[in-house]
Design goal:
Layout lengths: L6 H4 L9 H19 L4 E5 L6 H7 L8 E7 L2 H14 L3 E6 L14 E6 L8 H10 L4 E12 L6 H10 L2 E7 L6 E8 L18
Parallel strand pairs: 1-2, 1-4, 2-3, 4-5
Antiparallel strand pairs: 5-7, 6-7
Length: 211
């Protein structure tokens, strides 16, 4: 059997500001920040497999209006979830919940969806293709009408990103951005949900990490 990924060590790449992982993080943060700038009033955010939450929390740290954001971060690793909770505590008053739970099961999202912004970052490159398709199909259960989904995926051969983008279109999402730099294999997609929210189906397995 292949060794399990040490997700604590995986996060170490963020310590190098020149790493492609840090660059991808900045792209995701830019899209979160721009979305918040364009979206007044109270908003809800859910982040699946949130890690230590640095994509969303890193943006909120620099915003005076962060109290209008109600966010739920889902992370299965207890140590990493604890780091996210510590960052939330350091932010001061904020409506942010960190759930140490498996984001691959729909029940984990109960009470947090439908949301205005759904973050599916760091997932699609670590699960089977059929799990990616299943998660995209279920995104209508996570989104309000007009919600944004931000997702990431590598473009190593065989590149699944064209199919992922097509799956989103099939399920009533319009593509707003697709960032795919030539100097790296990462990609960041931003989709807008045009359909009507679907009821959350409990206890449904969306994805399982493959390592």
């Amino acid at each position: 059997m292949a060794p399990l990924t040490d997700w604590e060590s995986w996060h170490d790449a963020y310590e190098d500001p020149d790493s492609l992982l840090s660059e991808r993080l900045r792209v995701v943060q830019q899209h979160i920040s721009e979305w918040l700038d364009a979206r007044p009033g109270e908003v809800t955010v859910v982040s699946a497999c949130a890690g230590d939450g640095r994509d969303l929390l890193g943006v909120l740290q620099g915003r005076a209006d962060r109290r209008r954001v109600r966010a739920t971060l889902l992370e299965a690793d207890p140590g990493i979830a604890r780091r996210a909770a510590e960052t939330v505590h350091a932010l001061g008053p904020a409506d942010i919940e960190v759930r140490c739970t498996d984001a691959g099961i729909t029940t984990a999202y109960a009470g947090a969806v439908p949301a205005d912004l759904v973050l599916l970052c760091g997932i699609f490159g670590n699960v089977a293709d059929e799990d990616v398709q299943r998660t995209v199909a279920a995104a209508a259960q996570l989104c309000k009408t007009g919600a944004r989904v931000i997702w990431t995926r590598h473009r190593r051969a065989p590149d699944l990103t064209p199919q992922i983008r097509a799956w989103f279109v099939e399920h009533h999402f319009a593509e707003e951005h697709f960032v795919a730099p030539q100097h790296g294999t990462y990609s960041v997609g931003v989709q807008r949900f045009l359909g009507d929210p679907e009821p959350l189906e409990p206890d449904r397995r969306l994805f399982s990490f493959n390592k």
